[in-house]
Amino acid sequence: MSESKYYLVEKKGHVAWVWFNRADKKNAMNQDAWMDSPAVFKELDEDPEVRVIVVAGKGDAFCAGIDLIGMVGSMPELMENEQKGGLKWKLLKKIYPLQETMSAMEKCRKPVIAAIHGFCIGAGLDFVTACDIRLCTEDATFCLKETAIGFVADVGVLQRLPFIVGQGVTREMAYTAKTIDSRRALDVNLVNEVFEDADALFAGAQAMADGIAANPPIAVQASKDVLNHGTEASVADGLKYVASISSNIIPSHDLIEAFTAFAEKRKPVFTGN
Question: Which domain holds residue 254?
């Protein structure tokens, strides 16, 4: 696994935990956080032993957002007084790699579960909306912060959040930049489940990941592929696409193993083939 100064990767069986590991700064996303994400998730995507990924934060928060001070050095265009065309062109080219930081989870074939405690602000919310499933603690708070500091959220949250909570809630969060608590997050489907504290959250995330990992990997990954496609295509196109995917993965050794194990009344052993 490639070394990262921001992310810490730990493997527990078929589950990989990707930790935001900058607890002293409440895991604010610095240059390393933005640049290292694609490589981390690409390697996990290519690791045949990894079937599910859990993303979580060390310390007392998931992520307090972008480290603005830490990022100024790599994006001096933000501080220029003369915001003319040539400068904007340079800035545009720097935004694309930042978008890839978030898209890395979406592009990863393995399901990604976000286990959120404490702050999940700005870039932190961007990050978790690119994950497949979100779980949180009772003390978790969420904020689409960018408008409050003069930015438009440009790395994916405005594209992904409406599919999760709908247009109305997304616009409310984007326009007001207000903070919502875990109860509101659950009510609007931003999170799937709320846990009492971090220990319960991490145990719950591991249990969910283990449950997913117990299923045939090829079927889980194909389901993610089809669901991702469905957010960008019409229902008709999505149906054509899933038919194509289904015909490509059936039959598989895991499908045969599932039937055989059921007939033999034993637990199936899936290999991903």
Answer: 217-264
